[in-house]
Amino acid sequence: MGIVVRLDLVLARKKVKSKELAAFIGITEQNLSLLKSGKVRGVRFDTLSKICEMLECQPGDILEFDSSQRDEGDGDT
Fold first, then answer.
1. How far is residue 3's CA from residue 41's CA, in Å, rounded to a whole number?
2. Which residues constitute the domain of residue 58?
3. Is residue 41, in this structure, part of any structural domain at all?
4. Residue 73 lies in a domain
5. Going by C-beta distance under 8 Å and a sequence separation of 6 or more, which residues neighbour residue 1?
6. Is residue 75 domain-resident?
7. What average pLDDT does the chain have?
8. pLDDT per residue over 54-64, tens digit each?
9. What is the pTM of this model?
10. CB–CB of 2/68 below 8 Å?
11. What is the count of structural domains for the chain?
12. Between helices 29-37 and 18-25, what is the axis angle to 10°?
């Protein structure tokens, strides 16, 4: 599954710092960094909801499907 995380772009557009977003969501900056880099296996709806609330955006502004990308190490075909 090729889900691309566009959180960095939305943060820049909204001029919000990662540190501020992490504090609002209630997660560490390190975990937010992993989310931004796409190195997480999933995201809770509650976390996604808080991100969208803070950034005044929709989930589709943050997450994008790219069929040319595959998860590494997933094993699914």
1. 10
2. 2-66
3. yes
4. no
5. 65, 70, 71, 74, 76
6. no
7. 90
8. 999 999 999 99
9. 0.83
10. yes
11. 1
12. 110
